[in-house]
Write a structure and sequence with these properties.
This protein is 47% helix and 16% strand. It is an alpha/beta fold and 964 residues long. The strands form 6 sheets. Strands 1-8-7-6-5-4-3-2 form an 8-stranded parallel sheet. A 7-stranded mixed sheet has the order 21-22-23-20-19-25-26, sandwiched between helices. Helix 3 runs antiparallel to helix 4, helix 3 runs antiparallel to helix 16 and helix 9 crosses helix 10. The N terminus is likely disordered. Bound molecules: dihydroflavine-adenine dinucleotide. Dihydroflavine-adenine dinucleotide binds next to strand 4, strand 5, helix 13 and strand 7.
C-alpha cells in the first residue's frame, strides 16, 4: 500500500508533472473566473463578499421556480438590490420592474448554468461529444433531476437515463457511460428500510441494467450523503451479484473525505478479487461536505467527514495508491480538479508502470477546462462528467458547483482567482495535529438514534422482541395506605392489531385518588425541604436510566401507541431532554437572590414549590409529555400524581418505575391509572391539589380550567393550571416555494404519526399558481407510502390510536366530501385501527374541515390569491399553536415573522418535532396558556416567588448592601 515513504519518493515527479500541467493550464482561465466577461466580474466580486455570494446563490436557487416577469424582478431586487452591481446586472437592476429585466436575468443565469449543465437535447449532446473528442476525452452522462418524491418521478428519472443510453449508443462509437443516483430510483430510499429500499431500487434498475449489459456500457453509481452510504453500497453489491456478466463495467464512487473510506475501498477490492471481475472505482473527495457538517451539528451526531481539508487530500492520495495496486480487478477513475491530487495520481501510475488504458482521470464539465486540456495533452485518459437537464431539474447541482468553485479552500478558486504560487498548490498535504474536541458545556439535546447504522437497527429489532416477550401481565394498582379494590381493568392492546393484548392495568377509582392526594400532601413538606441539588441529581439519574433503556422504552411505544421507530425514539430522547433541561433550569433558580437594591433594607427573593401536582397527560407523546410535566413539577419540589392517558399506561408505568429507581420517594411520585372522567376530574376538583399540568384536547383543557377555578370547600389555595391544548395548524405555500421541500416537509408535518400531534399540519394554504402542482405532487408522494404495523420499519405510517378515534376521523372525512373535493384517499390494511389518509381541496375558511381539530391523517388544501390573503386565512382560527411558511421571498418571510402569531412558526421546514430548549413549544389562544414547554419560563409555572425584606438600619448605622 502507498504509505508516506512511497509518497515522499514521488515528490520529485509530482512537482515535475504539476509544473507541466500548470504551465499549460494557466494559458486560459475557466470561464467562470474569466474576469473579462460579465460572469467573471460578478464571480470576482462574490469571491470577496460573502454576503453577495450568499445572496447570489439564493437568488439563482429561486429563479427556475419563478413564473412571471414581475416575480423575477421582485426576487432579483429583494436579493441583490442592496448591492452596487456593475455591468449588465447593474443595468438590469436599474430597470426596476421592466419586463425586460426577467428575460435578461434568466438568459444570464442560463448562460452560467450551461457552463456546467447541458440541455436535454440530442443536438446539445452531439455538440458536447464533438467538443470532448477534440480534447481528446470521453464522457459520462448524468440525467440530473429534482428530488424524487414520487414513484412517477423515479420512473421519469429512469426513463431519461434509458433515453440517454439509446441516444449515446446511436451517437457515439464508445460504449455509453452513465452515472446514476440510486436515491432517485425510488421515492423511499430509506436506510432504516434497507432491504425494502434495495429491492425497490433494483426492481426499477433491472431493465436499465439489462440494457447496460447489452450495450457493454459503463454505469457508475454516484455516492451521496453519508446517511445513504451503507444502503448505496449494499445495493451496488447486489447489482454486481445479479448482473455478473462480463463485458460491462459497473462502478461506484467512493469519497475520500469520509474517515472510513479505506474500509469501503478494501471491500470493493476484495469483492472484485473473489468474484474475479473488474469493477470501476471513481475516487472523489466528496460533494456534500458543508451539508454533512451542518447536519451532524444539528443532530448532535459525530461528524462523518474529515474537518481538515489536508486530511481529505492525504487520504485521497493513499486511496489512489491503493486502487492503483490492483489494476487487474479495479479500474480506477481519479476524479477531481486539484492540481496536486492529479499530479500525484499521474506520478503514482507512472511509478507503477500502469498502462494508459488501466485508469483515467475524470472531471466535471465546466469546472476546470484548462486543466482538463492539460491533462489530456499529457497523454492521460480523460473522461468528463456531463450533467444533462433543464435549469429546474439541475438547480441543486448548479448551486453545488458554484459553491465548490467559490469556496475559500477550493482549489479552483486558489488556482484561478487567487493565483496561489505553484509551490503552495503542489505542496504535499500535511494535516494539522488532531484537535481533541472541546466538550461543550450547557444543555445539549440527546442525539437521535442513527438508524442508517445497521447495528442500531438490529438493537431496536432486538428490543422489540424483548419487550414483546415480557408483555401480557397485569399491572397491579398500588396506592399506599389503601386496600380498596381496583375500580376496574383496562386491557391495553396494540392499535395495529386489535387482537394483540399487551397487558392489563388495574384502574384506580375516586377513593384511590383521595388516598393518593393525602399521601402527596403528607410528602410535600419533606420533598420541599430536600436540597435542590439532590432533586436535580435525581432527575439526572432518571435521565440516565431512561437513556440506558432507550430502545426498550421506544419499542414499547411502537407497540402501545403505534409510533414508528424514529418517532418513538424521538419521544424517548425528548423525555431525557426534559429531565436534564428542567434540572439545569432549577439549578439556576435555586436559593435566595437579591431584588433591586433599596437603601437600608435587604430584599431577597426565592422560588417555592406550589404543592400537590396532578399530571394529566395525553397518549400521543406518551413518554415525553408526561416526563416533561412531571419532571418540571418534581424538580421544583412538588409531589406529583401521574394520571396517564388510558391508551398509554404501560409506558407511563415505566416512567414511574424509573423515577422511583432514580430516588424519588414513593409518596412524592404516585402512579394513578384511571379514567379521565372520574379520576382525572376528581383530582382537578380536589381541594388539596394545588397544581394541574395538563396536555390534551381543547374541550378537556377548558373544562379543567373552569373546574380548577371553582373554589370548593376545604380548599386553601388558588390552583395553578399549566395547560397545553390543540391546534389547527396551517402551512402557507408561497408562489416561489421550493416545492421539493414544501411537499416533503408537509407530508411529514401532516401525516407523521397519522396526524395525531397537536403540532401537525391540518391546513395548507397554497398560492393559486402552485396550488394544483403542490396538491398533485403531495398526493403522489403520499401514495408511495404503504400503511402497516410500525414495528416493521418499512412502514413510516401506521394506525390511529383507537377504534373510537378511527370512527371520529372517518366522520370528518365524510363531512369533507360534502364541504370540498376529496383529492386523494390512500389505502390501509383491514386489521387494526387504520384510517386511509385523505387530502381535500376546495375547502373554504368557513368550512368545519378548516376550523376544527381532527387529530388524524386528514389535510385540507385551501387556495389563496396573495400571500397577504394566505396569512389572513392562516390566522383565521381559534387556535394558535404552530404554523409554517414555505417562501423564498425575504419580504414575505419578514411579514410572516411579524404577523403570523402562533406559538411556533417554522419557515421552510417541517412544523413538527420541536426540540427542547432550541424550540420551546406551546401556543396561545385556544391552544394553550402561552408559556412554552422546554423554554426559559416553563419551570416558573410550577413555582411561586417569596420575598423577604429586612430593615437593616440600626440607629443611623447603615451597613453596606450585599455586593458592595
Ligand atoms: P479540492 O481539492 O478543492 O477539494 C474540495 C473538496 O475537499 C471538497 O469538495 C470536500 O470534499 C473536501 N473538503 C473541503 N473542505 C474540507 C475540510 N475543511 N475538511 C475536509 N475536507 C474538506 N462527489 C460525491 O460526493 N459523489 C459523487 O458521486 C461524485 N461524483 C463525481 C464525479 C466526477 C467525475 C467528479 C469530477 C466529481 C464528482 N464528485 C462527486 C464531486 C467531488 O466530490 C468534488 O468535485 C470534489 O470534492 C472536488 O474536489 P477537488 O479535488 O476537485 O477540489
Amino acid at each position: 500500500m502507498g504509505g508516506p515513504s512511497v509518497l515522499h519518493g514521488l515528490e520529485g515527479s509530482i512537482a515535475e508533472i504539476g509544473r507541466s500541467l500548470h504551465e499549460r493550464a494557466l494559458r486560459a482561465n475557466p470561464s467562470l473566473f474569466d474576469a473579462r466577461g460579465l460572469r467573471g466580474r460578478l464571480a470576482a466580486r462574490a469571491l470577496s463578499d460573502e454576503r453577495l455570494r450568499s445572496a447570489l446563490f439564493h437568488f439563482i436557487d429561486t429563479l427556475p421556480q419563478l413564473g412571471s416577469a414581475a416575480e423575477v424582478a421582485g426576487h432579483f431586487r429583494a436579493y441583490l438590490g442592496a448591492y452596487e452591481l456593475g455591468g449588465l446586472w447593474g443595468r438590469v437592476l436599474r430597470l426596476g420592474s421592466h419586463p425586460a429585466l426577467a428575460g435578461a436575468v434568466r438568459a444570464s443565469v442560463k448562460r452560467v448554468a450551461r457552463e456546467f449543465l447541458i440541455e436535454p437535447q440530442p443536438s446539445a449532446i452531439r455538440r458536447v461529444l464533438r467538443r470532448l473528442a477534440r480534447l481528446p476525452a470521453t464522457a459520462t452522462f448524468d440525467a440530473v433531476g429534482e428530488a424524487v418524491l414520487t414513484d412517477q418521478e423515479a420512473e421519469r428519472y429512469l426513463q431519461r437515463n434509458l433515453e440517454l443510453f439509446e441516444l449515446l449508443a446511436r451517437e457515439s462509437s464508445e460504449p455509453p457511460a452513465i452515472s446514476v443516483k440510486l436515491s432517485a430510483l425510488t421515492a423511499r430510499f430509506d436506510p432504516l428500510d434497507r432491504s425494502g429500499s434495495c429491492r425497490r431500487a433494483l426492481a426499477r434498475l433491472n431493465w436499465f441494467l439489462t440494457r447496460a449489459v447489452e450495450l457493454k456500457a459503463n454505469v457508475t453509481v454516484d455516492m451521496e450523503q453519508h446517511e445513504l452510504k451503507g444502503l448505496i453500497l449494499d445495493t451496488f453489491f447486489e447489482v454486481l451479484e445479479q448482473f455478473p456478466h462480463a463485458g460491462w463495467l459497473p462502478g461506484i464512487a467512493l469519497q475520500a473525505y469520509a474517515p472510513d473510506a479505506l474500509v469501503h475501498v478494501e471491500r470493493v477490492i476484495e469483492f472484485a478479487r473473489t468474484r474475479r471481475r473488474r469493477i470501476g472505482v471513481r475516487l472523489v473527495k466528496g460533494a456534500y461536505w458543508d451539508t454533512e457538517v451542518a447536519l451532524a451539528e444539528q443532530r448532535n451526531w459525530p461528524v462523518p467527514v474529515f474537518l481538515d481539508k489536508a486530511q481529505t487530500d492525504q487520504q485521497y492520495e493513499l486511496l489512489t495508491a491503493r486502487l492503483f495496486d490492483h489494476p487487474d480487478v479495479i479500474y480506477p477513475a481519479i476524479a477531481g480538479h486539484n492540481l496536486r491530487s492529479l499530479s500525484h495520481a499521474i506520478a503514482a501510475a507512472r511509478m507503477r508502470g500502469l498502462r494508459r488504458d488501466a485508469w483515467e482521470v475524470q472531471m466535471l464539465l465546466g469546472m476546470a477546462d484548462p486543466l482538463s486540456k492539460a491533462v489530456a495533452s499529457e497523454g492521460i485518459q480523460l473522461r468528463v462528467y456531463v450533467p444533462v437537464g433543464d435549469l429546474l431539474a439541475g438547480i441543486a447541482y448548479l448551486i453545488r458547483r458554484l459553491m465548490e468553485n467559490t469556496a475559500n479552500n477550493s482549489i479552483l478558486r486558489q488556482t484561478y482567482a487567487e493565483r496561489r504560487p505553484l509551490t503552495d498548490l503542489l505542496a504535499a498535504p500535511h494535516p494539522a495535529p488532531m484537535q481533541t474536541e472541546a466538550r461543550a458545556t450547557g444543555f445539549r439535546n440527546l442525539p437521535l438514534i442513527d438508524f442508517s447504522d445497521p447495528k442500531s437497527a438490529a438493537a431496536f429489532r432486538h428490543a422489540l422482541d424483548a419487550v414483546r416477550s415480557r408483555l401480557g401481565s397485569t399491572l397491579r394498582l398500588n396506592v399506599d395506605g389503601t386496600t380498596e379494590r381496583a375500580a376496574g381493568h383496562h386491557v391495553c392492546t396494540n392499535p395495529a392489531s386489535r387482537d394483540e393484548t399487551l397487558g392489563v392495568v388495574e384502574m384506580a377509582g375516586v377513593a384511590h385518588a383521595d388516598r393518593a392526594v393525602a399521601n402527596a400532601v403528607g410528602a410535600f413538606e419533606s420533598w420541599r425541604e430536600v436540597a435542590v441539588e439532590r432533586r436535580v441529581e435525581v432527575c439526572r439519574r432518571a435521565a440516565d436510566l431512561m437513556l440506558a433503556r432507550r430502545e426498550r422504552l421506544a419499542a414499547l411505544e411502537v407497540l402501545e401507541v403505534g409510533k414508528n421507530w424514529r418517532e418513538a425514539d424521538a419521544d424517548v430522547a425528548e423525555a431525557v431532554d426534559y429531565l436534564r433541561f428542567y434540572a439545569q433550569q432549577m439549578e439556576a433558580l435555586d436559593g435566595w437572590r437579591p431584588t433591586a437594591g433599596f437603601p437600608g433594607e435587604r430584599n431577597d427573593l426565592t422560588y417555592e414549590p406550589r404543592g400537590v401536582a396532578a399530571i394529566i397527560a395525553p397518549w400521543n407523546f406518551p413518554l415525553a409529555i408526561l416526563t416533561g410535566m412531571a419532571s418540571a413539577a418534581l424538580v421544583a419540589g412538588n409531589p406529583v400524581i401521574l394520571k396517564p392517558a388510558e391508551q398509554a399506561m404501560l409506558i407511563a408505568a415505566e416512567l414511574h418505575g424509573i423515577l422511583l429507581e432514580a430516588g424519588v420517594p414513593p409518596a412524592v411520585c404516585q402512579f394513578l391509572p384511571g379514567e379521565g372522567e372520574t379520576v382525572g376530574r376528581h383530582l382537578v376538583e380536589h381541594p388539596d391539589v394545588g397544581l394541574i399540568a395538563f396536555t390534551g384536547s381543547r374541550e378537556v383543557g377548558l373544562a379543567i380550567l373552569e373546574r380548577a377555578g371553582r373554589v370548593v370547600s376545604g380548599q386553601r389555595q388558588v390552583k395553578r393550571v399549566v395547560c397545553e391544548m390543540g391546534g389547527k395548524n396551517a402551512i402557507i405555500v408561497d408562489a416561489d416555494a421550493d416545492l421539493d421541500e414544501a411537499v416533503l416537509h408537509t407530508l411529514h408535518s401532516a401525516f407523521g404519526f397519522q396526524g395525531q400531534k397537536c403540532s401537525a399540519a391540518s391546513r395548507v394554504i397554497a398560492l393559486e399558481s402552485v396550488h394544483d402542482r403542490f396538491a398533485s405532487r403531495l398526493a403522489d408522494a403520499l401514495d408511495c407510502y404503504p400503511y402497516g404495523p410500525p414495528e416493521d420499519p418499512q412502514y413510516v405510517f401506521g394506525p390511529v390510536i383507537s377504534e373510537q378515534a378511527r370512527e371520529r376521523i372517518e366522520r370528518y372525512i365524510e363531512l369533507g366530501k360534502s364541504e370540498g373535493k376529496l383529492h386523494y384517499r390512500g389505502r390501509v390494511p383491514q386489521s387494526g385501527h387504520y384510517v386511509a389518509p385523505a387530502i381535500f381541496t376546495g375547502i373554504l375558511p368557513r368550512h368545519r374541515l378548516a376550523r376544527e381539530e381532527i387529530f388524524g391523517p386528514v389535510l385540507s388544501i385551501l387556495c389563496a390569491e396573495s400571500f397577504a390573503q394566505a396569512l389572513d386565512m392562516a390566522l383565521d382560527s381559534e387556535f394558535a399553536l404552530t404554523g409554517g411558511v414555505f417562501s423564498r421571498l425575504p419580504e414575505h418571510i419578514d411579514l410572516a415573522r411579524r404577523r403570523f402569531r402562533v406559538g411556533n412558526l417554522y419557515i421552510n421546514r417541517r412544523i413538527t418535532g420541536a426540540l427542547v430548549s432550541a424550540q420551546p413549544f406551546g401556543g396561545i389562544a385556544m391552544s394553550g396558556t402561552g408559556v412554552q414547554a422546554g423554554g426559559p419560563d416553563y419551570l416558573k409555572q410550577f413555582l411561586w416567588t417569596r420575598v423577604v425584606s429586612e430593615n437593616t438600619l440600626r440607629h443611623g448605622f447603615v451597613p453596606p448592601s450585599p455586593g458592595t
